Amino acid sequence: MWTSALLTAGGLLVSLFADGPPVFVPAIAIAGMGQGAFVAVDLAMLTEVLPATSEPGAGLAVIALSYQFPQLLVPVVGTVLLAIGDAGPNCFALFLSSVVAAVPGALAVKFVSRPALSIHCGRCGEAVRYGGDMGDDRAEIRYDKRGRVAHVVLDRPHVLNAMNRRMHAELAEVWDDFEADDDLWVAVVSGAGEQAFSVGQDLKELAALESAGEVGPSSFGSEGKPGWPRLTERFDLAKPVVAKVRGYAYGGGFELALACDVVVASDDAVFALPEAKLGLIAGAGGVFRLARQAPFRVALGHLLTGRPMSARRAWELGLVNDVVPAEDLDACVDGWVEDLLRAAPLAVRAVKQAATRSVTMPLEEAFAADYPWERVRSRSRDAREGPAAFAEKREPRWEGR
Question: CATH for 141-340, among 3.40.718.10, 3.90.226.10, 3.40.50.10330, 3.40.50.720?
């Protein structure tokens, strides 16, 4: 109760300096009742300060900082940011409010669970998401459905999109949803930021888990680990997946790209499987896929030494479909997606399944093998729609059934 009284008194005080109604009073009182004192700053910002500021981005910055660093320094840094944005008299009100809230807030955040927040910045038109200290409540994956396309972003740019156990668990949910959603026909997977697609396994996490005795020896595959089956082992996923690669694609990042159906890389992309230099093995399929997708002796050289290869070299070896300047990467990927969506979705799945399953078969066996998606396609309405549209000189209307 003393915290609530203190914060409410602070709210009354700062409201004297604000132009608008004393909106800080209920906001801070709510915080004092156990929601975490910095929520007061957030509520006040969203309800009072943001509409009055000339630079909303500065306001967003202080909210993010208040969640990242709940110490007394936050109000000072926040005030500087808001002053740069010329927020007006409400800036001073926010400063005093946050000073009052800072000390109990620093204690409250230790014990109060705060979910990740997502708010929309009207100025920049983008969703701004943050949560705590990049801890339990912050998603490691961004998953966005736009029409027929699923966009999957590995979202740990501060560690070059290294894959920890949480990311793998989230990816499993994403791939499950993508496979089950009949409205989604194509997926595009990429890495956040400009430096890396992904550098593979989070080795710091692995070292910590091994030191704690929480993991044992591991080899090929992900069975029994978070996120199983990972994309590298979803052998029955018939929908096409496009990899958009910029920067480093090392270790598991390279293996993820090798498991995709179309790979588009920027000219600054670099690929490598350096596991052997770390006493590890490319167990997410790199050993097997690279040896199948590149000339064997070339693949073995890279696997044994961990030597990197440029995007251009990967294209020469047939590991990449297109290499373009970084500024053209999005447009090139969009072109591939448009071409995939022009094709009948059931035909695309039948082709992918038949090609991947038969690649190691003798031709005679390949012709005689059973491909479930081809059985679906051959009996579908889309199989009749294509010839009909051609005869009638119109674009086909695919239904996916």
Answer: 3.90.226.10
